[in-house]
Amino acid sequence: MVLGVVNPATIPEVAMANGSKPLRAVSGPGHRVGTQRYKLYRDAWAHLNKASAQGYYLEAIALLESLLTDRMESRATYLTGSNTGFRTLGALLSIFQSVEKDPHFLQVLRKIDTWRVHRNDALHSMAKFEMGAVVSWAKKVTKLPRVVEEGRELLQAYNTLDIAERHKANKRAATEPSAFWP
Fold first, then answer.
1. Residue 49 has what pLDDT?
2. Distances from the Cα of 21 to the Cαs of 47, 79, 171, in angstroms?
3. Beta-bridge mates of residue 64
4. Residue closest to 42 by CA, chosen among 154, 123, 159
5. Mean pLDDT for the chain?
6. Which of 41, 66, 67, 71 would suit a FRET pair with 52, their CA atoms being 20 to 30 Å apart?
């Protein structure tokens, strides 16, 4: 062992997929993963709302992406039959292109893809501008509340579909009863 270098495979708390990506925690009898996930969702949602109310829109957008991708990772794991690990929105959308058959989910996923572009612009272009453009921070910030609102709407739409699908299988979503909305 080299001093100062930690092999993640030797840390029991860090489960790895394909030797490089952390595996997403999956619920099962006695694991209490669902309870932990619900509490984490509820706290993330409260923080997201507080950040947005205080004008920290970039933080709210990042939290929306985290919540949305976690829900999408869950469905991707279900549809593929394999733990997909932690993925970006783009990677998840690629997975869904080949495995998602439900037209309602496909419709929401198309909207999520459009939101992904807005999210990318918000998170990665705030301090950038094109040649010849005249921009200000204040003008860029005015677009952010709409990106937050679109993200909330998409999370709600996706979550509604997810809950309905789980109920058909006599299962419960980790977002129930009210992780995101009272």
1. 97
2. 26, 19, 27
3. none
4. 159
5. 88
6. 71
